[in-house]
């Protein structure tokens, strides 16, 4: 029976804290987490903005799609909600609600303690401030207001797209922030506390240059603290904005504040004129052959616009692995925008991961920057870092300067070097993700990823010239593939060719393509231009436990690495694995492609592999990897109420196999892990673990899914030759027969399997082989044989009493009946099978039965039944492939149209069109063949044309 859903836990499995001011963020158990793609972040932002109130599905949909939402909008949101829940509580089962994100009405709400959200805490502090002021406690009221403003110095959700920020709830949060700043300022100024409110007021007022009430408050605060000239500058700047953007003069409130300032006896001549400051121009020259990355250039230019919006300083953090081109990108962009910073550009290499270990201390960095600005490095031997930083910020006040801080080790190294006044732009490059800088200072983080194939090609052309780079297109493509999009690797290859006029890319290729010498070929005499050396600087900065996990990951075949498989290959528990993998992600030695899924760059894998072999750890890692995939595959297979032949020992404690409660997550696992699973089967064969290899082969795909990859026949035959256990041999023979269908040798393997199962009296095995023979006969057009084999398979399955096996056999027989145009008989068999699938919760079979019943009903003229079953199958069935959904959508469209139900017909057309846009047509061809697939597409095209005419 299907397991009932578990009740939500009484306490969260992890503790989450949320940040919205300065950008959306979440810390789980003290560690910053990736909140996923932009639409997923918007969903979470809407829930946070609601402050615990319910947010309806319609509200979320309106915020995600500017125009008409797709038919799959609700499903997409439910999927995002599930992903968000598992970000908060990674151990949450697929169907569990969890502690934080709860269903509410037609939508969802967030259940958070006040202290776990800066927005909730902001609102609580405002409530306390108003309560204290109403009770006459001015000091407590203003203090609560000021604490709230410290939280809300920067606008909320500023890392979301501008289109999303126009949603009413986000506009309301920003208005709330401005209103609180105004109320706090008025209360502070009225009670002689202008100095306390000035700093946060400057930050908030910068985001609202046209808010005259707020700008008037800022003027009064400047005047009350003795900075009357700054008050005048606020008035002039606001008057300019009003004239330029609205075409109006200042209103009465701003004019009154200006009259008060003049009444205090100020004249422009009273303000001392500062001495002329030096204008530094320290940017390094642009990197030769630089290739523009359009997606990153757009993101950087968007951030530049914020630097001129009178907001607080803008910090752009560029992160990525060593050799990925962070500095080249930063320098190139800095040169492009340098003219927008008339007061100069500062550049400083912080040597965060230099091989000599001489990381630049903040005091030394400040001394260098102060000297560049015409200030003494230190006023006295006793001057500390804080005093230096204060002089540095004072020197930058009121100036527009671009500051490029290259190769930072971490956020603490950068923090003292940040200016405090608006108009400056800080660019930081680091191999560290600078999580703290993003969280506390609101830095905008941009991950610098590998070059695309086209960008890699352009880099080589820029370095070598078009003729030398493209004379051998095949060699060019292979070099691009083997350098894996790493600019440093491509530059090293280009340099080798450029330095030797007689050397071609094809000559270099033999060195680069040899796995054992790949990093040797990408080396040079200068350690700073050597791929292995550049990687080593990041590796040697890791603690021993994290370094061990990095090495172990080289044993995983990839391309994706799950949390559980990483835990197994490293021989550590799931919880510790998550912590250590997060540290590798933070160090940009690993990429978290989605929550709980990781990817290792090809060249980093080669480097980690060298380290793994040096420490002689590979055999143990590979043995744990084999055990991981063996037990995970058998667990996935077991969700189909089956077990492959043979038994295996329990996994050792240092192996963490995956577990599955139902078919859908198991099907997802098969789809994600198929490449890694078959690579691990090859590894088991290489290790002489033939029985483990055989057990993995038998569990390598769901029963009846025909999901053995193309080209794997030889692997199956190799495993088959080593097996001595009869039932395992028979199951392998049946699997080999599936792979060779419809070739002639398939019969031989299937009949050998049948003979072994018959000799052993194994009814279930016989039923499976007969089902395979039925499918084989149908593919050859021998419908009589297909029906005969199908009937025998069903009869034996009934004798076993195993309902899942019977349901699979009935499905084969129903297809055989329908394939021989015995529509009524086929429909009756399908009805019986569907009843079993529903009763036994065999979700993976429901959609296949629905397709057979819907199609036969339509052909028999039972249109209402065809429509009902099509809609039910689309709603209830699960499938790894979109093929059956495409078929059901096409049948729904045609049957509904024939009934005169244009609404349902349109729904079917739209669903079909959405599915084929999502790779569904290719999957339909793979499952049904080109002729049948074209037939479904023609069916929908006809309905669509008739709907257009009738509309």
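Sequence proposed for the structure above (951 residues):
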């Amino acid at each position: 029976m299907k397991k009932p859903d578990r009740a939500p836990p009484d306490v969260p499995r992890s503790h989450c804290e949320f940040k919205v001011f300065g950008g959306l963020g979440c810390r789980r158990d003290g560690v910053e987490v990736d909140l996923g793609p932009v639409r997923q972040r918007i969903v979470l932002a809407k829930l946070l903005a609601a402050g615990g109130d319910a947010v309806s599905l319609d509200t979320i949909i309106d915020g995600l799609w500017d125009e008409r939402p797709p038919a799959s909008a609700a499903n997409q949101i439910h999927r995002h909600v599930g992903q968000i829940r598992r970000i908060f509580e990674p151990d949450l089962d697929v169907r569990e609600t969890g502690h934080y994100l709860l269903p509410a009405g037609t939508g969802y709400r967030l259940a958070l303690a006040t202290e776990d959200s800066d927005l909730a805490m902001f609102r609580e502090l405002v409530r306390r401030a108003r309560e204290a002021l109403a009770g006459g406690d001015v000091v407590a009221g203003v203090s609560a207001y000021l604490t709230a403003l410290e939280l809300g110095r920067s606008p909320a959700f500023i890392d979301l797209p501008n289109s999303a920020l126009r949603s009413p709830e986000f506009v309301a949060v920003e208005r709330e922030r401005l209103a609180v700043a105004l109320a706090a300022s008025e209360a502070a100024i009225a009670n002689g506390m202008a100095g306390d409110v000035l700093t946060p007021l400057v930050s908030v007022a910068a985001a609202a240059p046209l808010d005259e009430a707020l700008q008037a408050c800022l003027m009064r605060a400047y005047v009350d603290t003795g900075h009357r000239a700054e008050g005048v500058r606020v008035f002039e700047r606001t008057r300019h904005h009003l004239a330029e953007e609205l075409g109006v003069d200042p209103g009465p409130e701003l004019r009154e504040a200006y009259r008060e300032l003049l009444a205090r006896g100020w004249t422009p001549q009273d303000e001392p004129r500062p001495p002329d400051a030096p204008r530094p121009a320290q940017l390094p020259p642009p990197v030769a052959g630089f290739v523009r990355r359009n997606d990153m250039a757009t993101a950087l230019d968007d951030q530049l616009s914020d630097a001129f919006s009178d907001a607080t300083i803008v910090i752009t953090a560029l992160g990525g692995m060593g050799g990925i081109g962070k500095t080249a990108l930063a320098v190139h962009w800095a040169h492009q925008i340098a003219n927008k910073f008339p007061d100069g550009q500062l550049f400083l290499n912080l040597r965060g991961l230099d091989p000599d270990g001489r990381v630049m201390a903040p005091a030394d960095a400040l001394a260098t920057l102060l000297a560049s600005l015409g200030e003494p490095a230190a006023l006295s031997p006793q001057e500390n870092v804080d005093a230096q930083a204060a002089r540095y910020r004072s020197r930058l006040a009121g100036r527009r300067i671009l500051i490029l801080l290259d190769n930072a080790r971490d956020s603490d190294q950068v923090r003292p070097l940040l200016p405090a006044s608006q108009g400056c732009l800080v660019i930081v490059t680091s191999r560290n993700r600078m999580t703290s800088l993003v969280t506390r200072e609101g830095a905008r983080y941009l991950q610098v990823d590998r070059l695309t194939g086209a960008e890699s090609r352009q880099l080589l052309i820029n370095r070598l010239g078009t003729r030398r780079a493209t004379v051998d297109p095949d060699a060019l493509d292979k070099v691009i593939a083997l350098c894996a999009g790493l600019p440093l690797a491509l530059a090293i290859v280009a340099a080798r060719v450029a330095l030797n006029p007689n050397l071609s890319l094809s000559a270099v290729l033999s060195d680069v393509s040899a796995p054992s010498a790949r990093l040797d070929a990408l080396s040079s005499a200068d350690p700073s231009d050597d791929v292995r050396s550049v990687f080593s600087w990041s590796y040697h900065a890791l603690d021993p436990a994290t370094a061990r996990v990095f090495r172990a990951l080289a044993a995983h075949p990839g391309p994706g690495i799950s949390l559980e498989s990483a835990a197994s290959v490293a021989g550590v528990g799931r919880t510790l694995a998550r912590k250590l993998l997060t540290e590798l992600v933070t160090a940009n030695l690993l990429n978290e492609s989605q929550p709980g899924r990781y990817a290792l760059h090809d060249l980093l894998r080669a480097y980690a592999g060298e380290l793994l072999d040096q420490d002689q750890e590979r055999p143990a890692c590979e043995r744990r990897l084999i055990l991981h995939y063996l037990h995970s595959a058998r667990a996935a297979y077991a969700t189909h109420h089956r077990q492959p032949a043979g038994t295996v020992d329990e996994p050792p404690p240092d192996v963490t196999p995956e577990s599955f409660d139902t078919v859908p997550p198991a099907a997802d696992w098969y789809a994600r892990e198929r490449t890694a699973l078959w690579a691990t089967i090859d590894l088991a064969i290489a290790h002489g673990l033939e029985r483990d290899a055989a057990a993995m082969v038998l569990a390598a795909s769901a029963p009846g899914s025909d999901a053995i990859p193309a080209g794997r026949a030889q692997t199956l035959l190799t495993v088959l030759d080593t097996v001595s256990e009869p039932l395992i041999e028979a199951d392998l023979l049946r699997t080999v027969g599936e792979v060779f269908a419809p070739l002639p040798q398939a019969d031989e393997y299937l009949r050998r399997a049948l003979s072994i199962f018959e000799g052993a009296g194994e009814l279930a095995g016989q039923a499976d082989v007969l089902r395979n023979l039925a499918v084989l006969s149908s593919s050859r057009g021998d419908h009589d044989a297909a029906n005969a084999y199908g009937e025998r398979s069903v009869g034996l399955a009934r004798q076993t009493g195993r309902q899942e096996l019977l349901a699979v056999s009935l499905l084969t027989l129903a297809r055989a009946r329908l394939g021989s145009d015995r529509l009524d008989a086929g429909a009756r068999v399908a009805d019986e099978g569907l009843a079993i699938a529903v009763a036994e919760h065999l979700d993976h079979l429901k959609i296949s039965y629905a397709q057979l019943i819907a199609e036969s009903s339509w052909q028999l003229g039972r249109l209402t039944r065809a429509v009902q079953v099509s809609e039910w199958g689309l709603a209830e069935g699960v499938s790894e492939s979109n093929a059956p959904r495409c078929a059901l959508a096409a049948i729904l469209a045609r049957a509904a149209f024939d009934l005169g139900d244009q609404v349902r017909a349109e729904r079917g057309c739209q669903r079909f069109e959405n599915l084929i846009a999502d790779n569904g047509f290719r999957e339909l061809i793979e499952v049904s063949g080109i002729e049948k697939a074209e037939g479904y597409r023609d069916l929908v095209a006809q309905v669509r044309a008739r709907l257009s005419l009738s509309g």
